Amino acid sequence: MELQSNPAVLYLIVALLASSPIALMLERLGRRAPAIFSGAFLTVSGLVLALSGALGGSFFVIADLPFLGRIALFADGLSSPILAALLAVAGLVSFSGCLGEAKPQRGFQALFLLYVAGVAGLFLSANLVLVFAFLELTLIASWLAIGWWGGPGRGRASIKYFIYTELGALMLLAGILMLWGSTGTLDALSAPSSTPASPGAMLGIAFIIAGVFVKSAVFPAHGWLPDAYSESPPRLAAALSFSTIAVGAYLLLRIFGSFMPGALSDPRVSGALAAFGLFNIIYGGIAAIRQRDLRRVLSYSSISQAGYVLIGVASATYVGFLGVLIWAVAHGFGKSALFLISGEYRGSLGTDSLDDLGGLAGKMPITSSSLLLSFLSLAGIPPTLGFWGEFFILFGFASSLLSAGIDPFRLGVLVLAAASTVVSAAYGLWTARRILYGEETPASAGARDRISFALPVIAMVLALVALGIMPFLITGAFWIYPG
Amino acid sequence: MAVFSGDWIGLAPAWLCWLVPFAGALIVLALGKISRKAMESIGAASVAASAALALVMATWIPGADFPIRLTAPWVELAGSSGDLPFPAIAFGILVDPVSIILANVVAAVGALIMVYSIRYMGEEPSTTRFWFLMDAFVGSMLFLVMSDNLVQMLFGWEGVGLCSYALIGYWYRDSKDPKSWLTTWVGEGNESYPPSHAGMKAFLMTRFGDVLMIAGVILLALSTGSFSFLEIAGRVGSGGSHPLLLPASVLILFGAIGKSAQLPLMEWLPDAMTGPAPVSALIHAATMVKAGVYLVARVFPIFYIAAAADPGLIRFFEIAAWVGAATAFVSATQAAVSTELKKVLAYSTVSQIGYMMLAMGVAGTMAEFYIGYAGGIFHLMSHAVFKAALFLAAGAVIHATGSRFMHHMGGLRKRMPLTFLGVLIPSLSLMGVPILFSGFWSKDMILEAVLESGNLPLLAVSLATVSITCFYTVRMVGKVFFGSPSAPAAAAVNGGGADGHHAGDPSPLMSLPVLALSAATIAMGALGVYEREWLARLLGGYIGSLVGVHGEIHLGDPAAQIMVSGASLAFIVIGAVPAYLIYVRGMRIPTWRPLRSIGSFFANRWYINRAYYALFVYPVFRLGGWIADRVEEGALRSAERSAQSSLLWIVGRLKKTHTGGLNENLIAALAGMILLVAMLLLVVVP
Predict the structure, then answer these.
(1) Nearest CB to B85: which of A286, A399, A426?
(2) In the beta sheet, which residues pair with residue B68?
(3) Any CB–CB contact under 8 A between B519 and chain A?
(4) Where's the NADH-Ubiquinone oxidoreductase (complex I) chain 5 N-terminal domain (chain B) (predicted)?
(5) Chain B residues within 8 A of A475 when measuring between CB atoms
(6) Among residues B572, B603, B634, which one ends one of the domains?
(7) What's the structural domain count of chain A?
């Protein structure tokens, strides 16, 4: 498909970057002003993006540098949906901040917006060096936010987070440079459509995959995630959980979709991705069953979810890639809602420990239904959007299996990955049972639904159901440049 | 391409019938806090409305040219690469005799159960959740029934599963006090489960079947390029056989096995009895658990055609038949020793669905498929009616005695005469007592199909099951309504006859639906001989037109019919007489040791349930604990710690080079320069 030259992509990034200092300035108006501003700004721009589709198939060249090549921003059928989802999630998360936060957090909203701008820039960059630069921006913004406004263990958690993810980013950079060395370009718009996979390029791919493994917290590079998630301020954790999966999925789809379409036909690459994917699905899922607080359940759930991304990418098919995109979006909405809920438990009940909570279903019916539906989406159960992600990922992998001639390894991966979705349902329902059902515990005595807090969460859950019923909103828009 | 194809306006009942209950569910949610009466009325009325719409559809059967499809665009793929595995998934409604019959069963039985629920749930503090979920259930179930493709069907399929999950765990407090333990829990000893556990168990177990089914759907779509039942049936015949069809069919069968609680995934249904009685009647007897049978009936033409091209596909039908027969037998034995009233009925449901599965299975192995196919659908209809009546009546009995255990009941026929009638008539139908009861006709049609298929082992198993069925049914009626009245459990718990107001028959709002269902059982039985003929002609003609078999429909020779009826009568007597002597006449049970150990084997559920916990549940928990404690908090933490300390060690060593002495610094600088020059030379010179 064709890209149209359109400065809108540039305006969007500039506006996002500019919104951060604006939020800082707005703090004079009152402690809720920055959150209201960024909530409104992000949701509106997300909605505009989603409704107009103006960015679908557009690009804008910023500069032509002598040795880095063209620096451009562009949006194709991969960037636009994932960006719209990011803006919607981040906007709703901001709203939840303005609706019920106990103590004022000066500067948090500015840093949050900087983080969102970084992720958005990453989704829109055509040049891989620019991708790296935006990734660094997100790392620094989120590291500072964890370190300043995190929970009691924030010091250790933030340093661990920074070292891990910085290592990942450097591996990504190394991979990008090696890829550059063998293909001669960093620009997605001018990447050759079919490059023979030279050893250098394969090494670059390996480094990029390693970098993504750290960023998406794939076992064994997941050590940062449980600590960072449980110590983050809830709103950052919500945004962080979206981008953990979404950025990794996006990078893999971009590299294998736009830069090196042939690399996945190497059975070593796709086989390794599939094997890591399967292992993570099972490992994260089983570990999640035995966690003691909600945040850690969600952390290990993310590790499990990243596994499905890898399986979908390994399929190297259009349908599998579509599944990965949908999975990332569904995970973003579902996991963000769950992190906000855990923040609400910690904020108003003082704990999100599964042993201390119980019997909340009757006390907080709205929050409880949202928790249950979000978990169901993570497990890929209709009518939620998660179903389509899982369905297309499995479909893509099955079709790649058949076109390549049935090999027992891939068949085994398919069967086990499908069967393991029962584990996803199991940790979700088991967690729900411990929090929502049974006799009331002392900690849950004062619980009640706070409508102001619940609204953004309800919006996320409704989005999951609405998109699940109307998947054409995403499936009809998805294509990867050069298509 | 037209956006909406088909007569969406003229055939509006086909989509209104599921839309109305969904709308009802939303209105219920909105009314919950405002007016309880209005909420209950809307909740019941929306299901009654879809019963009326289903009835309108039934009037189409004589005239219309089936199948009729209504389609609209749904999932479109934007990919420009030419090799998309499927172009799009259309949203579709399939109107044909099978879906119309099912819709009528679901909506009509559902409406009566909703009326019963108004009074039954009357003493609960807040019932918004109940009405919302029941309406959403009926909507999802009808959506499932009317779907014209497998993916869309999955939405209804999981929708009913979710409602079932939430309604099984309706009393989610899991209260352990003796009074609620006696009414809301299920099982005894170490197989005793609270409601929320049972709900989770049901969902996860059926989910396992569903996941395999999804894999099967994917394989089927990959081999035929479509998800639509009719399109697939149109394509499997042409161009020979595809090697994936057999695995696809068996995987899809697993979905049916999970949903319909067949072996090896039957263990969830007996424990699902923690839900309120209307839930058990509607979801776990009359409708949702039949979805598996319906699925097999839906894909029947596909694999019947495929089996004509490739005889290997007959294995699919053979597996279905054997799964059904084995399940019918195994769960009948469990019903024969169960101590809880609703659990007897649950095992019996599993067993009767086994008969339906058996019917569908043998139908696929023979040319006169219509005897088995129509028999399966007929039994589905008659069972839905009489088992719903039994569950509703059981609900009244449990309400009255305050206990789910049959040893807390006894001698109730004088105190609850209407309820006794409402149990007796459906029970006779369940036993298959001849002529006047629907169960006789439908079960005999299945037995006839098995006989015609010539598979004698299957016939032996299904006849033996008839005896056991009669045994447990008479036992149940005897224990509850005959014998000496035992002290009601509620009285024992409360230390007095505090629950005296429950002593008699329930209010008319609860009795009438039970009696209406009993009357329907007799009506269906009285007309049975015409009904079986009508069904065989209708379904035989319709499915025959799909699979390309056009021939005279003849319902077996009279000799076979008489043989089957005679044999089943004999087996009824074999089962019923001992039970009558023991549980109605009060004869002592022979204390014969082998008999007792067999009994305890049955009572332990053949150890299947325990084996599942030992093989799947506990190991996953242990592994999860091991990962959390040993790997995550153990090995990985210490790896991080040692990385940290080795870094500090290196830093410490490096620090020592920073002495500040001019000599050392100069030497180091010089060494660095030499290194740089050497590197430059290496790069530039060659």
Answers:
(1) A399
(2) B95
(3) no
(4) 89-130
(5) 75-78
(6) B603
(7) 1
